[in-house]
Every structure is written in C-alpha cells, then in structure tokens.
Prior knowledge:
- By secondary structure, the protein is mainly alpha-helical.
- Helices cover 39% and strands 0% of the residues.
- Helix 2 crosses helix 3.
- The longest helix is centred in the middle third of the chain and has 15 residues.
- The N and C termini lie far apart (62 Å).
Amino acid sequence: MSRGPTWSGERLKPLLSEGGRRGGRWNDRRGTIDGVMYRARTGLPWRDLPERFGSWITVCKRHRRWSADGTWQMLLTAIQAGQDAEGRVDWDVSRTPPRCGRTSAPPVRPAHRRYAPQKV
C-alpha cells in the first residue's frame, strides 16, 4: 500500500463535477481526497486535520456529502475498472485452512491457588 498522496488527477478529474451547488468555486479536490484518506489512515479527529489539506470543515462536509450521494462508491468502481482493464488487479482468492489441534486452542490458565479445589 502506498503511503504517498492518493490523488491520481488524470483518472479522477473527469469523474468529479466541475463546481458546487451553491454557486461558488470549489477548492481543489486533491486536498479533499488526500485529507479524507489521511484521516482514514491515521484515525485523527476532523479538527486535527493538517492545514495542507485545506479547511477541516470543508473536507469533512464534502466527505459526508460524497458518502451520502454515492460519489465515493462511483470513484472506487471507476478506479477498480480502470486497474482491472490494465491487468493490475488480481481477483484470485486464496483461502488458508484453519489451524487445527492444540496450537489453535486458547491457552489454559492454571487455577488460582485461592480458588483451586481442596484436596481431602
């Protein structure tokens, strides 16, 4: 898994809309996408998002809007289809059998002396 920027402008740019609904010009989507991916990877709160991704409020609101309207799902499907067409996706599933025997059983803890049965 790459730890660098997640943006692939050439692949994603045609998929994203040109502007917002409220008439203003949107900020760069690169910051939004990278900000959401950074937050997902690190698990930090929205308010602690670094400034290099833009305003945390903008990134948070856009993430919620894109989650609700299916934009993230559409982007994932498009990226998977593109990668599959290039032969970069391996769809083979490998299944490992479960471990059997003593090694897979939970360890048995010795009884505590205080609660151990008394020998008569």
